[in-house]
Structures are given as structure tokens and as C-alpha cells.
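Submission sheet (multi-component)
Chains listed below:
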Amino acid sequence: MTLSTLRQKFLAGEITPEAALRDLANDIATRDQQTGAYLSHDLESALADASKADLALPLGGIPIGIKDNINVLGQPCTCGSKFLAENYLSPYDATVIRKLRAAGAIPFGRLNMDEFAMGSATENSALQTTRNPHDPTRIPGGSSGGSAAAVADRTAIATLGSDTGGSIRQPASHCGVVGLKPSYGRVSRYGLVAFASSLDQIGPFTQSVEDAAMILQAIAGFDPLDSTSLDVPVPDYLATLHDGVKGMKLGLPREYFGNGIDPGVRHTVEKAIAKLRELGAEIVDISLPHTEHAVATYYIIAPAEASSNLSRFDGIRYGHRTKQPADIADLYRKSREEGFGPEVKRRIILGTHVLSSGYYDAYYGRAQKVRTLIRQDFENAFQKVDAIISPVAPSPARKIGAGAADPLHEYLSDIFTLSANLAGIPGISVPCGNTDFDGAKNLPVGLQILAPHLEEAKLLRIAKAAEA
Amino acid sequence: MQQSDIDVRHVANLARLELNDDEVAVFQPQLEAIIERARSLMQLDVANIEPTAHPSPIFGRMRNDEPHESLPPAAVLQNAPDQAQSQIRVPKVVTDA
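Outcome: structure written.
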């Protein structure tokens, strides 16, 4: 059931928020043993919220699952890490949670993720395996794999995730649901456990584009607690949702349609593009010439920021502390050694290296300049087109455990999504069909739409037209 | 040019991260390969290009210096691994002279 359908049922008195929550809890009990999307859920506290739900509010009584790196008062926030799994309970609500509650929604359930959002398969979770509901032998994508899988498995109406290099759009594509990464600054990051502060954004996973618009409406807007949040008006996203694509120019970046795309993905995306053309959009060839440098740029900047952000996990104020350290330095080193998994360690080391004396200018300083070139590529493209369309990922979901032995190869699969984070622009993944892949039938394929900064209304409008 | 060299054990120490020998053996070649890839950026001419530290035009904005409610001490201490007398307890930091 979509969010908007559930809302209609609430308003018609066909079901109560308490009953809807109990239904979801039953679905989690029966189906999530296999899928493994949820790390925990607290039905009693959600029922207490539901008993006070104001159904007149835009999201009145709607339960929303939360990625386990967004703080909800009194609930765990493990970030998929052993470091925070032992004894951490959030002492406050993130701003998005405060805004969801103000819109009447009920945070319900904590969703699995790659440790500290570092990964593209949710296999880097230190706590649990999450499976793709379309094929339980396959990954759900990541890092917000639990958030995507729960919506696809219908054990959640809608969820929140976070996207630093594609962590909402790629799992949405692999699981066949809608996933929206808003513009940088559109949604407050206060209360999101920081991975890379200049790239992170919170956004929704939903079963429909309309539902994504409804959640964005609730969570967008200025927040004095996030110094990068933008103090600009939030448009009415539903008002223009059905305006269609007639007369719009949509750009196909030739660098995104080269070699390395699975033929089934290419075919499915081309069908979606043909549909948009039939609906009146003009399809234009464009170029984003610095695309080949995006992965290297991202994998300098993101680990650099992560190495700084994750220095707060030192075993002092919260999280894991080693037993019987010899001294304070030993406490830091051993607590971090014991608490972090391999991908987190790799990125901390990489980030520390590119920020260290003698390497800073050659790597981090240079990557920041290339980031300017990548941003300018998009600015130039948006002089010619309203939006850009592409695949989300080069191939559908791979098998669990079949990732490349070398992390570099995994990083390369983020090529179509991470540029949007470097440029700060919004992006959405909309299901556009299914394809056979690697011996599996009918795996979901997502269409990515990218729009200029703060143009989410346009993005949602195109996504609505593209939606099957 | 020695720029791609990375000494994983040294850098891990800078990051206050202990690694065992097995981890060093795995990470060293992996990180060398990633840094080798990053060296592709050296081909680009970035003279006169301004760096982008933040993708939006506004950042680092200060909020008004007005008192507001903070987390109560009990909420701050609830997650501390070790505490005493309403404070977080750590091993001795300053050694005897």
C-alpha cells in the first residue's frame, strides 16, 4: 500500500494508525526474517505515538522506517557498526524526525545499512545481512539497503535513507522503488551521523513518486542547527507533480552511455527515454566531459571528510571502549580497532593519508579543484537542458558475496550517482522496468533523473511522467 | 615521483587506529591501487581553478548567539562507557613528572 493510499484509508476511517502499525509489525515478523531489512523496531513506542496521531496533518499517522544513522530520541542508532551497537541510545531527535513528527508521521523501525554508510551492497553492515526482496540471493544495494528493501518487501510504507555518493538512488534502483536525494542544503543534516559532510543528504524511499513528494515536503526547509541548510522557500511539490514533460529538454550524457553498461539495463533505460519522448520531451545529446575523473575525485574527498568526522568515535563519550587500556592513546587505538570494520578502516586510512602533510595539495587540494570542474560540467549542461537522464547503476543487483575482491572495482560501479553529490544537485531513481541478468529473471532497473540545484519540483514532475 | 607511496601502518597511527599484521598486509596493496587510480587527476590542468569545498553557495553561516536549551547532563552521560560523579571517566591523561 502506498503512503497516499494509506492516508486515504485513515481519513475514510477504514483503518486506524494503530492497526496499520500492527499489520506492519506482523509483516516484519513473517517476512523480514528472510529479508533482514530491520535491525530493530519498537512497536510499543510507535503505538503510543499512533494513539495521539492527528490525521488532519499531511502525514498524520503514517509510519516511516528510519535508516540506522538518523537519531530518533530513545532509539538505537548503530550505523551498522559494532562501535555503536552495544549501548548507544539517541539522546535527541534529528531535525528530519522532528519535522516528520510535526507533519504527523510516526518513526517506526531501524533499518540496516553499510557500516557508517560506506558501501554499495549493505554487505559492510557489521550486524546483519540484508537480502533483495526480488531475489534473496542478491544484494539490495547500499548503503541504505535496509531502507530500500523494506519498501520493496512492503514491510514499510516509506523510509528515510541518506545519500553520500548514491546510497539512496542505487539501492532504490536495485530494489525497484523510488529513491530521492535532495539538493545539498535542501534537507537538514542535523542528527544524521556524518560520513562526508559536504556530500551527505537525507531523502525518502517510497513506492510512488507522489509519496516521495509528500515526504520531501515534510522534511525540506531551513534549519538553524545545520549551517549548510539553505534559508529559501520550499515550493509545493504536489502542485506541479502532474504537469508532465511536454516541451522539456532532457539531456543524455554520452559519457554515461558508453561501454560497461549491462545490455539489459541499457535497453530498459532506452525504453523509458522513448516513453518520455512520446510524452513530448525533447531528448538532447549532451556531454559531461569530466565524468571519467569523478570516481577518483569522490574517493579522495569522501574518505578525507570521513576520516575527520569519524575521529569522534574515540571510545570516550559513547560507543565501544576497549577493556583495560594501557593509557589514553591505547584506549583510542584499540577501541577503534575493535569497533570498526574493514571498509571503515580503509577509508579512514585513505582519508588521513590524502589530508596528511606532503600529500594534501597533491590529492585533497587537487580533488577539490576537479570537483569545481565537475560542478561546472553540470552548470554548462543545464544551460541547454532542463534535466539529465541516465541509468542509476551499470548493472542490476549482483549476488551476495560476489563483490570484487578489490574495493577499487566496487567503487567504480558508483560512477553514475556520485557526481550529483559532488555537484550538490538533486537526483531521483524511478523504477523503469525489469531485465534478466546473470541467470536471474526480472530484476528491477532504475532510471536516474538529475536536475539543477533546488529544482526538486521539476525532478519530481519528470519522475512522475516516467513512472510506470 | 614518490607521491603514491602510502605507509599504512604510519597513517593508521596518525588516525589513532591500531592494525594487526594481517590487516596491514591486506590494506597496503588495496590502498596503493586506489591511490594509483587517484593519480589520474594529475593529468588535469587545474591552474586558475578555484577549489570547491562545499557544493552550495552558502555555508558556514552563523546562527544568532541566543541561549537555548541544551541536552541535560543525564542524557549526555547515558551513553558514556564509564562515568563517575556525573562526569565521563577516562584513563589518566597527564603523567607524573
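Remark: Chain B touches chain A through 56 residues (CB under 8 Å).
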